[in-house]
Request: fold
Amino acid sequence: MPSSQIELPQSSTALLLIDVINQLEFEDNEELLTGLPQLAQNLSRLKRAARQADTPVIYLNDNFNNWHSNFNEQLEACTKKGSKGRELAIALKPTKQDFFVLKPMHSGFFGTPLEILLDKLGAKTLILTGIAADICVMYTANDAYMRNYKLTIARDGVISNHQHMTDEALEKMHWLLKARILTVDELVSKFAKRD
Reply:
């Protein structure tokens, strides 16, 4: 066992990409699927800006009840031809600098080492993005709020099965969890000012 630990980057902010590596095999997702190209473009820009500002990028991904899987196997499955989430997974393919956490339930905090990782990184502010705004993003935001993290949600960096579900989730996260709701353009501009 090595005596030295790998030094992690330090940042007061972390970007969370929630369930973006996803085959999207669930019911009533037609409207969501039509929004994927724009989501992929928005999140690619945001991730690039975060990396340029030395902000850690963390993939929070459901294990889809496959307890033998790992993140690389999920990425491979999601990028195969025929996967509805293929283009999004390809656009947001993780790099070696990115972190990933597999989650067994909706919240990125439930049954995962996410809180320990955030502590090691020094992150106190979380930028949440991903799928679905009204489920996994909102549950993760709720658990983050209860742990005293400051929250920002990318308005055009989250998506649900229907736009009204996204809108309702954003409103709840703003009013109940004190989350700032900003566009990807606004977030990219903030990252640029940190350089």
The chain has one domain: 13-194. The chain is about 45% helix and 20% strand. The beta strands are 13-18, 57-62, 99-103, 125-131, 150-159, 180-182.
